[in-house]
Design brief:
Length: 332
Amino acid sequence: MLEHGGNLAAAAKRFNIPLEHWLDLSTGINPDGYPITEIPAAVWQKLPLEDDGLIEAACEYYGCQLALPTAGSQAALQLLPQLRAASKVAMPKFMYQEHANAWQANGHEVIKFDFFPDENIIQQADVLLLCNPNNPTATRFSVAELLSWHATLAARGGWLVVDEAFMDVTPEHGIAKHSHLKGLLVLRSLGKFFGLAGARVGFLLAEEQMLRQMQEFIGPWSITGPSRLIAKQALLDKAWQEKMRVKLTGDSQKLAVLLTKYKLTPMSGTALFQFVPTKDALALQQHLAQQGIWIRLFSDAPGLSARAALRFGLPPTDGWARLESALKLWQN
């Protein structure tokens, strides 16, 4: 199993601080997630309905033609490598490592590059896989770049796979509306922006034949009835979405200012996290952990001069003062 943010139980045991006393900034999940309404008992008692309007809500929200619900985008990314014969799959060295793990585990050759693929990479690859924006570096790829790479790959039967887990605050920069094109696959999730990671709801956006193949692999009832109900409500709630986009953008800017104040100027960021390369990454993570604050450490960061980095998620409303107090202790 690869290491992920949110492994709070291990941190609590290691630093001997009760789980409930931690401020968890390690995941990039919205700390002010979508409010959960009361779930009728009947939803728990029946098998999930496939024609409950969830797919239509997803297509409207993402601006796409077709969508397949999956148990988080994790379920889809683990199965995608099984839908191709052995291929050369290009992706950044420094990104969400479950992608590389899944392709390598299924016999594919993974080719890695620093931040942006060059022409040589595009010509070598059968599949180009990107997180947009990248996690954790927040590197962004334009729609024009993505469509150009897709056209080159698709012309010889290749794929462009784009993981848009952190795209919700800036939907205008996403490529979901083009996902009906053959050889273009887009992964989306309700875990980050909506703060519904525990519901395990994601979507694969692609052309019909690809979605049929994936559905056969997944089988029926991949998402629980209660999760489908909550997901549909969240996807249709435009007022909440617009309000949250403004709030998260402001909070992320506030976090960047706070970190800069304590000489931890971010290299980059999204609306849900700030990315800080620093040679003191391990020492700072340990210091904050001793204060009951958990952040994500990247001890080997390819392509960065510091070779180590930290990812800070957004604090909840009552966590800002606590984070600043801990940073002040660090500086002193």
